[in-house]
Amino acid sequence: MRKQFAVVGLGRFGGSVCKELYKMGHDVLAIDSNEDKVNEFTNFSTHTVIANATEESTLQSLGIRNFDYVIVAIGENIQSSILCTLLLKEMGVRNVWVKAQNDYHHKVLEKIGADRIVHPEKDMGIRIAQHLVSEKIIDYIELSDEYSIVELLATEKVANRSLIQLDIRAKYGCTILAFKRKEQVIVSPLPDDLIHLNDILIVIGHKNDLKRFEEEGL
User: Fold this and answer.
1) Is 9:72 a contact under the CB 8 Å cutoff?
2) What does the alpha-carbon distance between residue 67 and residue 203 come to, in Å, rounded to a whole number?
């Protein structure tokens, strides 16, 4: 379903979000106070505007409260990020996602009501580190301090065996949500479904259980 997004701040993170949403066919308003940056996105957004997003009158004139999501991706200026987020929530924007620079910034954003706070550099760093230490890990998503979702490469040890034969949940406390086989994605696989060599298993569980499954089960 086509949605309306506004992206405030067109740096590396905001710019990539803007381009990807537009490529996916959504309506995207690209906002930045830097004219050169805004000009770069005329072909990668539905509308562009040069504006200071820390001014309430400016946000109101853009009809910002009518957007499904507003992504605040203001760069190094934490004060501007906080003020913009506060204004957006006070104006009744339904979903405000904000890029945080550090833990202090995160705490303030939580207190003023940001709906989702992201740490792109930290998150990517964790995912790359996980991938570096194990050839079996394809991707890694941290859900909380204790739980994660990982994509694991199926080895010969599990190939041509069914989920019921492997009994991963009972042995390791992990759950296979789905697996990918070339272009095919099998969601909520059945107990009799066979795993093939080099399938990508999408597994959720406690970090300790996932580590044990990766080391002992694969």
Assistant:
1) yes
2) 34
